[in-house]
Design a protein that fits this description.
About 30% of the residues lie in helices and about 20% in strands. It is of the alpha/beta class and about 475 residues long. Helix 3 packs parallel to helix 4 and helix 4 crosses helix 7. The structure holds dihydropyrimidine-2,4(1H,3H)-dione and zinc ion (2 copies).
Length: about 475
């Protein structure tokens, strides 16, 4: 056998199926051997560490234009550097259609923003906001065949919302083309109604964002999306599920054999609605404004149960970074946002902290096993989004995308040590036990001890059909 380029020795290899101590041999960026006493040109001693598949963050927003001109805090360079430092080797950001424009043109623009700038591998989900006959009949089917095999639809936001008829049409195209639809399930009219009522009562602080985006509105939309998917007989993913009530709808669907998948995120286990109060109901609450918003302790407990029992397939960051201070067009703290919560940009940063939070709160505290951690953060995202088995596991023939974890390293999350473009973290001071200490993409180190290493060597990934289609 030709010599190995690199051997990772003595670590505990963790996959979604099992854990065992072994060496991993790498050649030309691929895993080519797993065994004992392997020899190679280079060696990384992983004794005492866990060796896991590199994290796949399947829900990330980078360099996305917004309707009010607010500029995101991360472009593809800073966002993927931050991802690498947090133990990720692949991220899936969105290429969002701007209403009135060709989806294909919008995708091309995202390629221009991303090409040559990425430190991890990347692949785009599409976002369909304007399902014209041209988009539905020509562009979307052609894009799916070109390897853009998933797309997101919104059930709220004035400039993004699709009505029920449009949702059904999009689901129908997805079924025909075997694409996976991701659904942002919040009821638009209920949110608009509650927002106006709260504003009329003078309740405009960021805290009231959480009341306007009521869990009932999320539950209703989740059920509606499930019903539409059942009608069309298409698999869907309900993304960023925040609490017990939408979760129960997903369980209802699963009990009937419907092909409904689900994602949850760090903010729903590590934050609650109280965080939106800031300091005595002040504007600091804006740092926690995201949609759906964090709920209560009961919902947190439900989400943990769902992470354990398989209700949730995947755990993604929903990294959607806006600065707090700084120029008005980059921040949550802008003059208009101070007049009402409804103008605060929706989204919080998290691509670098997703894995440490789940490891610490989940694995270190004994709520989930290391194998379940790998399933939620790498294997299932790869399976759902057409990247398996090249990505998402540790197996011969797969990409040598690996993250080495020190399960005993304890230190807090601090904005100071993060690599994202945001000027705060909602998780400031959170004590974490278990940190990624080295991230390798195709056998090349892209981050070490929380610091990105090397050039922008990530590739764009064309994807296959989701395993949701069997
Ligand atoms: N939906 C997302 O997926 N991310 C941020 C905001 C939102 O509404
Ligand atoms: Zn969303
Ligand atoms: Zn999102």
């Amino acid at each position: 056998m030709t010599a190995l380029d690199l051997v990772i020795t003595g670590g505990t290899v963790v996959t979604a199926a099992d854990s065992y101590v072994a060496d991993i041999g790498i050649r030309d960026g691929k895993i080519v051997a797993i065994g004992q006493d392997l020899q190679g040109d280079d060696r990384i001693d992983a004794t005492g560490l866990m060796v896991m598949p590199g994290g796949i963050d399947a829900h990330v927003h980078l360099d996305q234009p917004t309707s009010d001109g607010t500029v995101m805090a991360d472009d593809f360079a800073s966002g993927t550097r931050s991802a690498a430092a947090g133990g990720n080797t692949t991220v899936l950001p969105f290429a969002m259609q701007v209403k009135g424009r060709s989806l294909r043109d919008c995708v091309q623009e995202y390629h221009q923003k991303a090409d040559g700038k990425c430190h991890t591998d990347v692949s785009f989900h599409l976002v369909v906001t304007d399902p014209t006959p041209q988009v539905m009949g020509q562009e979307l089917p052609a894009l799916v065949r070109d390897g853009y095999t998933s797309f997101k639809v919104f059930m709220t936001y004035d400039d993004l919302v699709l009505d029920d008829r449009e949702l059904l049409e999009v689901f129908d195209v997805a079924r025909r083309e075997k694409a996976l639809v991701m659904v942002h399930a919040e009821g638009h009219d209920a949110i608009k109604f509650l927002t106006r009522k709260l504003e009329d009562e003078g309740k405009t602080a960021p805290f009231y964002h959480g009341q306007a985006h009521a869990q009932i509105a999320e539950r209703e939309a989740t059920h509606r999306a499930i019903s539409h998917a059942q009608l069309i007989d298409v698999p869907i993913v309900i993304v960023h599920v925040s609490g017990r009530e939408p979760m129960e709808q997903i369980q209802w669907a699963r009990a009937r054999g419907l092909k409904v998948h689900a994602e949850t995120c760090p903010q729903y286990i590590a934050l609650t609605a109280d965080d939106l109060q800031g300091l005595n109901m002040d504007f600091n609450g804006a740092k926690y404004v995201c949609s759906p918003p964090p709920r209560d302790a009961d919902s947190q407990a439900a989400i943990w149960q769902g992470l354990r029992d398989g209700t949730f397939d995947i755990f993604s960051s929903d990294h959607c970074p806006f600065r707090f201070d700084g120029p008005a067009d980059t921040g949550k703290n802008n003059p208009r946002a101070r007049t009402s919560f409804k103008w605060v940009p929706n989204g919080i940063p998290g691509v670098e902290t997703r894995l440490p939070i789940l490891f610490s709160e989940g694995v270190s505290k004994g709520r989930i096993t290391p194998e379940r951690f790998v399933a939620l953060t790498a294997t299932n995202p790869a399976r759902l989004y057409g990247l398996y088995p090249r990505k998402g596991t540790i197996a011969i023939g797969g990409d040598a995308d690996l993250t080495l974890w020190d399960p005993n390293l304890t230190r807090p999350i601090q904005q100071q040590g993060l690599n994202h473009g945001c000027d705060y973290t909602p998780y400031e001071g959170m004590q974490i036990t278990g940190w990624p200490v080295r991230t390798l993409l195709g056998g090349r180190t892209i981050a070490q001890d929380g610091v990105p290493v090397g050039d922008a060597g990530g590739s764009y990934l064309s994807r296959g059909t989701s395993q949701a289609y069997g």
